[in-house]
Amino acid sequence: MNTLYSDKRPVSLTSAALHVMNALIFLLAGLSPATIYANQSIALTSAANTATTTAIAAEGYIYGFPIVLMDETRKGMTGPLRSCTFGTDINTFKHVLDLPDPEFKAVVRPNVDTLYSSAMLDLSEGPLVMTLPDVPDHYVLMAFMDAWSNNFAGIDTTGENTLAGEYLITGPDWRGRIPRGMTQIAAPTNLVWIIGRTELLSPDDIYTVNQIQASYELNPYDPRVRASYGNQADCLEDSEKQPPIDIVLSMSGETFFSRLSELMIENPPPRDQRTMEVLLASVNTGRFADGDVEDLSRIQKRQLDAGIRLAQGSLDTAKQFLGLSGWGPNPRLVPLGEYGKRYFIRAMVAQIGFGANKNEYAVYQNAERDSLRRNMNGQYDYTLTFKADDMPDVGAFWSITAYGDDGFLKYNEHAATLGIERYALSTNTPLERDENGDITLYISSQPPQGVPLNNWLPVPNEDFQLTLRFYDPGEEILSGTWKVPDVVRTN
């Protein structure tokens, strides 16, 4: 869910300049805020015009944003007032059984190429056994996210893989022997989010995909641990719920760092991030703190708020830069799903597309500007052409989906009049080639004339964005040597 932070209070010129500087450093070098702020502590303190609490809060906010968002997402999925779309008990799969439409608001940029299967896991009471069926004719990806949003493991149907098997999902404290015939998936944290995607070959394929989804199972490894099936809980439609990211973005400094402290104790960071733990302990956050966040002085709590505003300003500025260069991000420069100490990139991804998987499983490319770097708008017509000798190199399939400027699907009345309910084109669409073997996609709010309607991607009559997804991408895509063609405005 992608909702930008908004703070109406004026920002000083020094602070604004720092936002731009940090954003440019991120875009050009992919550095973490630990590196950025360590090299610019004087500038940061000057911009904040306070003691070091503000600087620590700024760095801590960027460091901790993903795990706080992960926990809020967990609450939204498994809590007493859970999402009707993704809500279910802990350690249980919830399957989305139909394609999303413009009313779907559960996640930003929903794809219409696959059906989701989601599960929030708590491994603190012991391992879980995931049983998957043999799926020889559909692409399936089970991506595993730890509490910090790292995609630490994945199972897919690429190559000779057919998915079938039993997988023992273990937490960081579990010690034991792996039963014969089981494959271990060792999680670095007890909080894990499984995001499953099962390929939809066509709209008529939904029943088959639902049958595949029904075969995905999760059960406790220890028979003495009770499964959480059948718990009664109310659910709310997504339109009635505040998105998790909005909740996190609206937190005060005291609330945010109190939550972060609890989560860092429950899901300790890797050993090589001990420096961040020690730093945050100085504001009573984490397992090395001498007190609680609520014990800080009133002035320090205000400085926590100031640090959050400073950090979010840098993130917002970086997000504004992202769309300036056409398609992005560059998969070679932005290692989605495996961030290490790239805390700034990790926080950015959490706010733009939370739950992103490693590039090796799928590469996503987003665009909101055409070949001349003008914002794309449905009052104009556009084309995107894949040359016959330069098609996307994928082992599974590719797709392109249109969204409104808010990242959600949009209704197109002209398409509806023609009986077309389409938000994407893909390898599985019967696209027509021209005499040279090229595939040209026609992107417009009204049906194009004199061209194959199978190649038409309807968009709203307003600003819109495009997302290209490459499942099981080849080396040319992963290395960034293959470039997505520009979107060309034709009128």
Automatic annotation (TrEMBL):
Residue span, DUF1214 domain: 362-474
DUF1254 domain span: 90-220
Gene3D superfamilies: Domain of unknown function DUF1214, C-terminal domain (2.60.120.600), Domain of unknown function DUF1254 (2.60.40.1610)
InterPro entries: DUF1214 (IPR010621), DUF1214_C_sf (IPR037049), DUF1254 (IPR010679), DUF1254_sf (IPR037050)
Pfam families from the UniProt entry: DUF1214 (PF06742), DUF1254 (PF06863)
Name this protein carries in UniProt: DUF1254 domain-containing protein
Source organism of the structure: Thalassolituus maritimus
